[in-house]
Amino acid sequence: MTRSRTARRPLLAGTAVLALALVAACGGDGTSGDDPSTTAPAPTASATATPSPTPSASATAPVDDAEADAAAPDWGTTGDGEASADALLTVSGVRLGTHLGYDRVVVDLGGTGTPGWHVERSATAAEDPTGDAVDLGGDAVLTLYVTGLGYPFDTGVEELQPGTRGPGGTVVTGTEYSGTFEAQAQVFLGLTDPEAPYRVFLLQDPVRLVVDVQRSMA
Question: Which of 12, 39, 135, 202 is the most buried (most CB within 10 A)?
Fold first, then answer.
């Protein structure tokens, strides 16, 4: 038995040395391996969450969508619309598209409820409340008043920058958005034809106001 123990001593010693070498190689100091400072991998850029892009007006329905064509009333439908009781909306975009016989202006909105509207035809236009003149290069102006509005901090919707101008089409020379003031905003449409017929109507999902302006086919 004495010879057997003597023969095993070098093996045990070698094992102890190997164990110590492994601990040293791992940088351990005898503490628990559950310590997150030594076991958790450092976060990398690929693991960092990327915020979702903010929706923009370009993500909404196109200006020539089939729903608008199907819902469009007869020309000359210019009556006012009343905002819903829970209306709290923000204008997020104004777009224009040219179609056979008319130009279509779409006002995109986000928030709660449905907007109201009123349209006035005039020779010139001025912003409310500053009174600043708006010149869109036409011979007349349609002013769309959108009601039932709230500011972005009320609705959580990013507002189209006040003063933003949009391109024209054939009868509409251009558009300008005035910005929200006292729960309403103005959208100006310059016209080449002071008597051009128009129609106004509401679409939902997403909520948007549509103004179609007819041009002469002569």
Answer: 202
Two tokens at 18? 């190997």
**C-alpha closest to that of 125 among 49, 43, 200, 188:** 188
57-214 maps to which CATH number?
2.60.40.3500
Distance of alpha carbon 118 from alpha carbon 122, whole angstroms: 13
Residue 34 pLDDT: 39
> What are the structural domain ranges in the chain?
2-30, 57-214
Report d(CA 188, CA 212) in Å as an integer.
Answer: 13
Average pLDDT by stretches of 10, the chain with 218 residues? 38 39 42 38 39 34 75 90 98 95 96 97 90 92 98 97 95 96 97 95 95 84
The CA-to-CA distance between both ends of the chain, in Å, stands at: 121
pLDDT at 13: 41
